């Protein structure tokens, strides 16, 4: 197992779903973890603390650059700084372009894309000074292909992959790496809402879940947060140190079609 003892990881959007799974994997591997996200953090902190490393939580709304700066200052003050930055916070909204609410577009771009720029620019100076760091952006298959109704999400995730390439190049001669992970369907609250929306049209919920997978994901099985956590650990390992600027699919075959 990768030993991340002595390292501190900041995982945005880690009070739920994929971010929580990644936070657990990082703590299991020995990292101290700064959690972030909405909702009651006390149970989530307890879940991540069970592996004996230090765990904190900062409630920054990552749509606000000032709150991102406060979160990173908290990590520096309380944990000595961020060695592993996992940009995971994200939201979704489904509507045709001509009906897409302008404020939802702005929020998705702020949370899913601009926050990655802000946390990266604020964490990089220390990583460069330490000459070690990992920046891992949770993009999506929607960073590489489109789907109807997801204009803002697809635009933001394509942007994340572009930003990942640039940061990967700008750090290429250092021990800092920057990569994106592109999951297919993962059964989290973000996706459950899309299944519920289908079921609301009168389809049986099990059938709605099957249809969602069958349309895009050839394995007909969800990717899981622990599988994503293991991929994050690989990218943090010495074996992963020459993976740079990559967009790594973990998608049950979605992008092979
Ligand atoms: P989720 O809804 O389960 O969790 C989202 C997390 O982000 C929560 O902790 C929430 O509190 C936090 N969050 C939301 N807005 C925030 C804000 N403004 N500031 C701070 N935190 C905020 O979603 P998930 O499915 O776990 O998604 C996590 C990431 O994975 C997202 O970037 C999403 O785009 C990406 N992703 C998800 C899937 C999937 O199938 N679930 C597939 C590909 C990519």
From TrEMBL:
PANTHER family: 3-OXOACYL-(ACYL-CARRIER-PROTEIN) REDUCTASE, 3-OXOACYL-[ACYL-CARRIER-PROTEIN] REDUCTASE FABG. Pfam families: adh_short (PF00106). InterPro entries: 3-OHbutyrate_DH, NAD(P)-bd_dom_sf, Sc_DH/Rdtase_CS, SDR, SDR_fam. This is 3-hydroxybutyrate dehydrogenase. It comes from Pseudomonas fungipugnans. Belongs to the short-chain dehydrogenases/reductases (SDR) family.
